Amino acid sequence: QQVNPFDYIIFGATGDLTMRKLLPAFYNKLRLGQIPEEARIIGTSRTDLDKAGYIERANEALERFIPDETKSPELIERFLKMLNYITLDGTKSDSDWAGLHTILAESPKDRIRVFYFATAPQLFGAISENLSKNDLITSHSRVVLEKPIGTNLDTANAINNGVGQFFPENQIYRIDHYIGKETVQNVLALRFANPIINAVWSSEYIESVQITAAETVGVEGRASYYDTSGALRDMIQNHLLQVLCFVAMEKPESLEADTVRNAKVAVLKALRPITDKNIASDTVRAQYTAGTVGGNNVPGYVDELGHTSNTETYAAVRAWVDTPRWKDVPFYIRTAKRSAEKVSEIVIQFRAEASTLFGKPPASNRLVIRIQPHEGLDLRLNVKNPALDTFTLRTAELDAPLLIEGQPFPDSYERLLLDAVRGNPILFIRRDEVESAWRWAEPILTGWSENKAPMETYSAGSHGPAKAEAMLASNGDKWHENM
Ligand code: BG6
């Protein structure tokens, strides 16, 4: 359904995220009739451009990033009419705030106003301050914060305090595009709308959980960011811990945003701390060396950078959620650049059936939740082998696609962008979630910086370092591709 008219003000409007993700997502929502014609998107950045120049760039981005099936010249024209642009340095008080004021004053006073900060996070506080000083924050305003919120707990607090001085928490929408993925949201439906799943969702039946987000790409044009971040900060502290929360949370009493977020915080707080004692056995960090990905030879990480580096492009952790439900169930989390394939998935490995009625079953039950690509579910069952007159078992896979025929999956930003307009923060991260996630992740980063776990290597195009295989083998487990 259509949202109320809004003014979306994007800081960082000429950046890659805006061009690649945000504008195409808005376009698709307009196409689906969910955005009213009066809605406006006002780009701002330091780049000296006028409105026509920005529209030209936006047009090029749409040409490039919208799939052909949804491209329509008439619709693109309507979309471009929603755009405006103002050259503005959000961190400078003497920038053209009056210009932004004039544009916003064209809208009714009670128009929903969403400020989207797609800039470097250390600028968020200064931009918020300037918005406040220039009287641009109304009671109908919200602010969306892009990741990364900090590089550790202190810097996260500095960012949250900086923004929090000018926006109350209920107006702050911290985005994590993994929660925008339909397949991640679907974990809640799967668990809480299906008694046959819900009933077995505990350590009594589940032996281990794997959460993987692997990519074939390297660091592309983002080396200057990535080399200061690394895989743990870039993917695990935020995206993969959020996925873990969806898998591990207790059933929230309702779909009220804070009820769901309370349930997630409870999981994050129950994560067993990684300490100097177990960092070497329960974490693996690694960098890719030269190799072959998808038939192409690619250089190693340090060659790509042109200098030595202590940044991991692969991270794996054996995590434990210390609640009665998850007693003794390892959660193996991993992420990699330049991996063998692009795949994000959750693997729920069930315990073996103890009964020996048919002898040892060929395999235990396993549920694979394919976050992307081939979005869907795969459930492995033991069945009777029809080729034999004896009760001999074989395995069969139940494969349920989550895509509806003929309907493309919405991009992860689409719902999130409009949820901020709707004022529904259920899929956004509350401040205490960020803090709890950092409390768990930071000791790993500290330990790594003190060399408490060695930097491993893996060939580009492989599934990761041997040490990560060994970590699972010590529990008698294997990564999904080796099962
Ligand atoms: C981003 C990371 O948050 O997520 C990138 O900064 C990564 O490094 C991307 O490539 C992965 O997202 P997706 O949706 O392609 O899995």
From TrEMBL:
Record flagged with keyword NADP: yes
Record: active site: 239
UniProt record, GO biological process: glucose metabolic process; pentose-phosphate shunt, oxidative branch
Catalytic reactions of this protein: D-glucose 6-phosphate + NADP(+) = 6-phospho-D-glucono-1,5-lactone + NADPH + H(+)
Pathway linked to the protein: Carbohydrate degradation; pentose phosphate pathway; D-ribulose 5-phosphate from D-glucose 6-phosphate (oxidative stage): step 1/3
InterPro entries linked: G6P_DH, G6P_DH_C, G6P_DH_NAD-bd, NAD(P)-bd_dom_sf
UniProt keyword Metal-binding present: no
EC nos: 1.1.1.49
Residue sites binding substrate per the record: 177, 181, 215, 234, 337, 342
Domain Glucose-6-phosphate dehydrogenase C-terminal: 188-480
Domain Glucose-6-phosphate dehydrogenase NAD-binding: residue ranges: 9-186
Entry GO MF terms: glucose-6-phosphate dehydrogenase activity; NADP binding
Entry GO CC: cytosol
Keywords per UniProt: Carbohydrate metabolism, Glucose metabolism, NADP, Oxidoreductase
Binding site for NADP(+): 46, 147
Family, similarity comment: Belongs to the glucose-6-phosphate dehydrogenase family.
Reported function: Catalyzes the oxidation of glucose 6-phosphate to 6-phosphogluconolactone.
HAMAP family from the UniProt entry: G6PD
Protein name: Glucose-6-phosphate 1-dehydrogenase
